Amino acid sequence: MKRLIVIPRWAGSSHDDWYPWLQSQLAADDAGYEIHILDIPDWNAPDVADSVDFLLKYLPADQLDTDTVLVGHSVGCQLIIRYLAHVEAEARRAGRAVPQVGGVLCVAGWFSVDQPWETVLNWIHLPVDYAAARRTIPPGKLVVLLSNDDPYTADYRENERLWVEQMQAEVQILPEKQHFGEALDPDVLAAIRDLATAAPTPS
């Protein structure tokens, strides 16, 4: 059974945006998904370290496996990358093999925003080991969906470049999706279905 873990956008809950619809659609697939849409404490002004600790407790490093697909929305993508970097570092310190995730989908992910507010600055400026995070993701299993009119990242081409450069991601630019905040999003659903069933790309 595949486990799908969805991490909402900034201040988002399991009841917002396309998350409930996604859960209902995947449940109707009868494809054996175990779906978790997380409600993260203090997500209105999330702290980097506290958020990573929360995810590590929810999904301990030794429980990450190829049947697990992680889906992040906006700052949720940042949390996933930082969590995976921590998992990789923990495995190396313990002399264990680096766990592999089944896939990662980042929706409206960013490395910076055009007009940052105070509580987002740590997410932008605190360093993260992208190479470590990459080592937990099989080749071809990181997909990023960006919009050409996202109000938070107007330079979507630069954002795309950074995802390819830092994370070797497959990036899809979709027209007029803004920050992917609709109640129904067939593009996200299709990307998850493709990611969950596709074989890793040979190295």
Describe this structure in words.
There is one protein chain. This protein has a 6-stranded parallel β-sheet, sandwiched between helices. The two termini are 26 Å apart. The protein has 7 helices and 6 strands. The model has no long low-confidence stretch (mean pLDDT 95). Helices cover 37% and strands 16% of the residues. The chain is globular and about 45 Å long. With 203 residues, the chain is α/β, with parallel strands linked by helices. The longest helix has 20 residues, at 75-94. It has helices at 19-29, 48-58, 75-94, 121-125, 130-134, 156-167, 186-197, and strands at 2-7, 33-37, 68-73, 103-107, 142-147, 170-174. α2 crosses α3.
Can you give keywords for this protein?
globular, six-stranded parallel β-sheet, alpha/beta, 6 strands, single chain
Structural class assignment: alpha/beta
Instruction: Give the neighbour order of strands across the main sheet.
Output: 2-1-3-4-5-6
Q: What fraction strand?
A: 15-25%
Average per-residue pLDDT, rounded, comes to 95
Q: Largest sheet, if any?
A: 6 strands, parallel
- Measured as a percent range, the helix fraction is 25-40%
How would you summarize the topology of this molecule?
Layout: E1 2-7, H1 19-29, E2 33-37, H2 48-58, E3 68-73, H3 75-94, E4 103-107, H4 121-125, H5 130-134, E5 142-147, H6 156-167, E6 170-174, H7 186-197
